[in-house]
Each structure stands twice: as C-alpha cells, then as structure tokens.
C-alpha cells in the first residue's frame, strides 16, 4: 500500500463533473457519509476494477483533533490484510482532502439481510465462522475492533463476509499499565458489560462478546438485549438477562451462554470457540498469501507455486519434477538489469550499494546457476519450517509464528546482471524488522555463504562491467 500526495484534488472531465483522482480513479455514486468523510463508489480507469473511496476533509479532521486517529486507522488497516476484512489499497492526499482507496464490497451490509428475518442455521454459522476467523487474525496482530455489529459486516459477490469500519479500533500499544483499555466506545446494544462498568476492560473479551450478540441476531432476527429505555437495556446487558428462542439447538444455546458470559474471566476464548462442536461443522481454516496485492488461496495456488504445508511436510516440487513438467533445462530466465536499473539500486551513481546490506533487505552478486539459488533458499526454509512459494525467479519465504505485524515474510528475486552473473535481492515483505534481521543473520546469510563466496570472485568484474555499461548510457559531461 502506498501513501501518495496528489498535486490537485481532482481534474475536471470533459463533462464538467468530478473526474480522475491521481489520473486513474473516477468517482461514481455516493455510498454513504458521516461527519468527517464521504464514501463513493469509483473505478480504476486503467484496470476497470471497482473500488470504494473514502474522502476525508482535512480541515474538519484538524479541527476535531483526529489526525492521530486517522494515522492509527491507516496503521491498523495495513496490519489486517485478510480475505474476510475489507482491504485498503492505498492512501492519497491533497492540501484539503485525504483519500482512502478501498475494496468495493457489492453485497451491502449483513444488517440489511438480517432485517428481512432470521437466517438459516447453516448460513448464520458460515458468517459466524468467517467473523471469528477475521477477529482472530486481528487479535493476533494486536488489533481490536471494539465496534463489531451487523452494520459493519459487509457481503461480497460470493456471499462471503467482510469486516469493515476500523474507525473505533485500538492497538495493543494503547493499553494502559494495568493491561486494560479504558475508552468507552461501541454501539449500545453490542457493548460488553465490563465496558459499562468503566473500570477498564480486555478488548479481546469485548470483541468476543460482540460476536456473541451478532450470532444471536443472525439466528433470532432480533437483539438479545433490547429496551426502548437505554438505561434499562444497559441493566439487562450488565446482568446478562436474555432468553433464547425455542428454535435454537441445545448446542447453539450452550455456545451463546459461553459467549455472553458477563464475567470476562470465564468468557469463552477464540481457540475454544474454534473447538466448539456447533462452530466446527463445515469449518475450514483459511490459508492464504498475498501476491501482486491480491489474496491467493493456498488450495487454489498455481501449480508453479511450491509450498511446505503447515504440518511441515514438504509439498514443494523438486527441481527434477519441475524440469520434467516444463521440459529439461527450461527454468525461467531472470529479468535482465539495464544500466538504469543498476543506478536505481544504488544511491547516486555509487554501484557499491549493490553489495551492501540494509535494515529491510540486502543484495548480492553470484555466479551460481538459478536452480542452485532456488534450491538453497528452499533448503534454508525447510530447516526453519518456513512455507515456500516459487513463481519464475521469485521466491517467498513465510514463517508460521504470528506477531503483531503478521508472520515474517521474505521475498527473494533473481535478476540477470550478465550472461554468467545474477543479482539476488532479498527484502522483508511482512513481519517485524528485528525478527527479519535476526533471521537474516542467523539463518539466511550463513546458508547463502557458499553463494557469497562465488560472488567474491566475480564482484569486481561485475561492478566494472556494470559501471562501463552505465557510463556508455549517460550523456557526456557539459563543459
């Protein structure tokens, strides 16, 4: 995701209406609005894809003291990229406006579906499973929604759920010294009793309570705690006073009693929800990765993409199998680097930058064949039980340990420098920077030492050849 400064708020089109933003997004109909923002349907004129663009007024945000709030929302949406969460593609800004370019979810709010009547048990279970998967993903990354309700759950073309509106979300670094949150927020009918107590609360438990209220609404068609007098409703919530309709199965009733437990200490946890008998019917864990800014299912991955399964058994194709399927000796050829690529790799015209390590990645030159480099990366990944995905001359290594910034994900790409030399570029794509540096120094760098040794014999000639190429492409110095 990128943050881009737009030179002008909008260009006028030939019809005199609102035109293109950043030369590629054209605004359409208004989808909704609030005190500080309006949301429009829009489409990318280059790709034809529909998007939703949230337009925020900078002056109102400044007057409202919401700059930190907006920055936090952007940070949160960067952390929580999941198939059941509305995706933020990029953020743009002008002198007067901020634009959030987001996934456009055509199916509307789940609230609209429920308002027509209660759902079938199988349909409600599917939505609840997807909701819990998304919430679990958020919590693993230190993000707590705090305003879960059917109005903030959208449905896409396939009828899959998408969690939206992280405007009231919090992150773990907002927790006070007592380990709790103290901000009163949320929608009254979905708020947990401990929030009403105003003594501090565990946001994980608060989200679980809201999920319980949502499940009740999906199955019953009405709220478990409801009263025209809001104080009377709060008393019902605080005491946990609700009754399940007769059509609820005994398994569902038992689950709801655990979800809507007024004591957060004994309230069911997400791992326990996922082991619950009612929940588990037809449930499949979502396994995905992101490539070219798109979600890819592990099960639907292209045959060219090898991986090690989460049970650590090898599912990656061997080099011999790959050669057999593609034809012997037909490994993909790396993209060639021209003089300007080389210059862009380095500060100024100093090509020594090609061989220096940075905090977020490194590059090195080697004379080793592409197949050997790919095999070495796979070998390292297998030792540390990382998932591997290959596509042409790109390799992705992904750890299984979840952190607040997601699992450590490393991308390695091979470029052709000369017919006999290649540049291997390694970058951190996800996860914590400190974890990346530790993994690089402990596992990746030692594992690639043999290739580094081949590099040391060829670096001088490579740099000389690259410099000569760059010199021949540059205009002569003016006198």
From TrEMBL:
It is an enzyme of class 2 (transferase). Residues 458-470 have a biased composition (Low complexity). The keyword Transmembrane does not apply. Residues 332-356 form the NAF domain. Its cofactor is Mn(2+). Residues 25-279 form the Protein kinase domain. GO terms for molecular function: ATP binding; protein serine kinase activity; protein serine/threonine kinase activity. InterPro entries: Kinase-like_dom_sf (IPR011009), NAF/FISL_domain (IPR018451), NAF_dom (IPR004041), Prot_kinase_dom (IPR000719), Protein_kinase_ATP_BS (IPR017441), Ser/Thr_kinase_AS (IPR008271). SUPFAM superfamilies: Protein kinase-like (PK-like). Keywords: ATP-binding, Kinase, Manganese, Nucleotide-binding, Phosphoprotein, Serine/threonine-protein kinase, Transferase. Residues 307-328, 452-479 are annotated as: Disordered. CDD domains: CIPK_C, STKc_SnRK3. ATP binds at residue 54. GO terms for biological process: signal transduction. It catalyses: L-seryl-[protein] + ATP = O-phospho-L-seryl-[protein] + ADP + H(+); L-threonyl-[protein] + ATP = O-phospho-L-threonyl-[protein] + ADP + H(+). Its EC number is 2.7.11.1. CIPK serine-threonine protein kinases interact with CBL proteins. Binding of a CBL protein to the regulatory NAF domain of CIPK protein lead to the activation of the kinase in a calcium-dependent manner. Belongs to the protein kinase superfamily. CAMK Ser/Thr protein kinase family. SNF1 subfamily. This is non-specific serine/threonine protein kinase. It comes from Gossypium hirsutum (Upland cotton).
